[in-house]
Amino acid sequence: MSSIFEEHHLAEDVNSSEEGRLLYKRILSKLSRREHLNHEEIAGVVRNIMEGKCSDIFISSFLMGLVVNGENHVEFAGVIDAVRSASNRITPETVFPIVDNCGTGGDMLNTFNISTAAAIIASSCKNLAIAKHGNRSSSGLSGSADFFDHVGYPLDNNKMKNVISSIESIGFGFLFAPNYHPGLKHVSHIRKELGIQTVFNKIGPLCNPCSNLYAQVIGVSDSLMLHIIPKIIPILGLKRAMIVRSEDGMDELSTTAKNTIVHVISEDGKYNLYSEILDPLSLGLPRVSMNEMIVKNKMDAINESLRVVYGLYNNKPKENIVLLNSAAVLVAGNRVESFKDGLEVARESIVEGRPQKLLKNLIKSIGDLGRLESAEKTMLNY
User: Fold this and answer.
1) Containing domain of residue 136, as a range?
2) Lowest-pLDDT range of 26-40, 90-104, 182-196, 280-294
3) 31 in a domain, yes or no?
4) Distance between CA 254 and CA 250 in Å, rounded?
5) pTM reported for the whole predicted model
6) Nearest CA-CA partner of 243 in 271, 273, 214, 269
7) Number of folded domains in the chain?
């Protein structure tokens, strides 16, 4: 999976006032003492960063201080509040639950884009809408935005009303993160230079700009996030969430190892939490080597994802891992009772060609059908 918050514009350094410099000095001093920031402190800093009021030196020191100190759930919540309050929000009107599946990235395994294929397949199944929040890759070879750009989905020039319309009428929309979080352009080049996961990578999946999101499947590569993210779900207003990680470090559900899943479910205004270990063998999915999932480059990653969507990998390892993650979306969206049911529904959808039809309808309505046709030819000849 790709990092959500990765932009390509340079931030502007804005000279801080004397009061601001004293505040930032106090923040950095606190982090240097290995003390955590409170909600107001970190939210205030992030708001200033997104408004272009902080220097590159401060931003770099601030991000590294958080990394070295190790962010807690209060700090994550403060960053999320600041980012979400400055986001361009959308509210699609649909009778179906709206779901997202996205990960923090950072597993550095160079797998193909599993979550993107899983989202398309899940959306094609039954009574479900997908608001796929994503970006170009930061830690892998290809992110969801790289895939959609290749098949003709407009990114930078895409109007939000078109995205809303596609979610409402087709059941799928891709939310290109820079369009919804413009303030984060002030930190993108710094994060690229740092070259490590920062707090923005980790909270990216939790900042989907769809205001009426029903559920999320959230992949994490850092096992500590399995304990931190459940504490944050209530502030997001989600009805259901599934935080997942494979034992070999993938920020996906994997057929290469057992998987840890933390379920967070809202019932009668209260959030209930339970965990499970999911072995793909228990679902009839054979255990495979990680080498089966690794790809060589971005084009390879995109083509492998497209082949799965088009049903060209019947009962092969790449299809199976995508089906498992499609089933997770269906379970999180409360469309099926179990992973076993979800696998059957997703596999049937591929056999009937519904994911391919959905993708074609999506590009036809909002993008460049010629580019999709070109991508299909490349996929077959690659």
Assistant:
1) 98-181+204-366
2) 182-196
3) no
4) 7
5) 0.91
6) 273
7) 1
